C-alpha cells in the first residue's frame, strides 16, 4: 500500500513551517527530534496512514524550515506544531513526539489543550539537570568542527550496542551520515541544554503515553521516567533499546502507539 503526500507551508510567527499530509482518518502529527527533520518517521508513515491523516512538520532547526535563525525554545516549537495543525484544519490531533519532539509535543499539549487529543512522548526529558545528559550534549556540540566525528558520535549514542552490532559497519556509516552539524541542528542542541517544561506538565489535559528506552545513551532512561511521573495519570512503557526505539523495534513500537491512539 502506498500513499501520496500533500505538501504545504504553515506561517508561524517569523517562521514558515513546511509539512506533509499523508493518509485519511483521525489526525496524528509526528514531531521530530534533533536532526534534519521528519524523514526520521518515514519508515512507519505507511502503518500510521492506514487509519490516520499523518502530519509531518519540519520545525525550526530542520533543513527545510525557514525562520530568523534565533534561539529556539520548547514553547516556540510547540507554537509551530499548533500553527501546522490550524493551517491543516484537521481539528484536535494526536501528537507523537520523539526525543526533542517529546518535550515539544508535551508543551504543545499543555499550551493548547483544544488542539491535542492524545499525547505520546518518546525518549524525552523535562529539564537539562541530568549531569550525563549535559555532558553528552556539550561534547556533541564540541564535535561540530569535525562533521564525521559529529555523525559517528550521534550514531554511537543513538543505538544500543546490540543494534550497532546488528547493522554492521556499513549500517553505521549510513546512520552516521544522517546527522550533520548544520546551524539548525546546533540551535536544537542549544535548546536541548536549556529547555525546562516542568511548569507546563500540570497543564496537560490529554491522555498521555510515555515511552522509555532502558539502554538510552543520549537521554538516560531516568529522564523518561521523570517525564512520566510529572504527567498525572499517564501510562508508561519501557523498551529494552537505545534512544531510537522506532528503528530498533519498529514493529513493536508502531503497534504500541497505534493501540494507544485507538482507545
Summarize the SSE layout with pairings:
Blueprint: E1 6-12, E2 15-22, E3 27-31, H1 45-49, E4 53-57, H2 74-88, E5 93-98, H3 101-111, E6 116-122, H4 131-142, H5 147-158, H6 161-176, H7 183-192, E7 208-213, H8 221-230, E8 235-239, H9 245-248, H10 250-261
Parallel strand pairs: 3-4, 3-5, 5-6, 6-7, 7-8
Antiparallel strand pairs: 1-2, 2-4
Helix pairs in contact: 2-3, 4-7, 5-6
**CATH topology assignment:** Rossmann fold
Task: Provide the β-strand percentage band.
Answer: 15-25%
Radius of gyration: 17 Å
Helix content: 40-55%
Our measurement of the CA-to-CA distance between the termini, rounded to an integer number of angstroms, reads: 25 Å
Q: Indicate the structural class.
A: alpha/beta
- Largest sheet strand order: 1-2-4-3-5-6-7-8
Tally of helical segments: 10
Oligomer: single chain
CATH superfamily: Alpha/Beta hydrolase fold, catalytic domain
SS elements, strand count: 8
Unreliable segments of 5+ consecutive residues: none
Average pLDDT works out at: 96
How can the largest sheet be summarized? Answer: 8 strands, mixed
**Shape call:** globular
The SSE string, one letter per element, is EEEHEHEHEHHHHEHEHH
Please name the CATH architecture. Answer: 3-Layer(aba) Sandwich
Q: What's the level 1 CATH class?
A: Alpha Beta
Q: How would you portray this structure in words?
A:
The protein is α/β, with parallel strands linked by helices and 263 residues long. It has one domain: Alpha/Beta hydrolase fold, catalytic domain (Rossmann fold, 3-Layer(aba) Sandwich), CATH 3.40.50.1820. Helix content is 41%, strand content 19%. Helix 2 packs across helix 3 (101-111), helix 4 runs antiparallel to helix 7 (183-192) and helix 5 packs antiparallel against helix 6. The chain is globular and about 45 Å long.
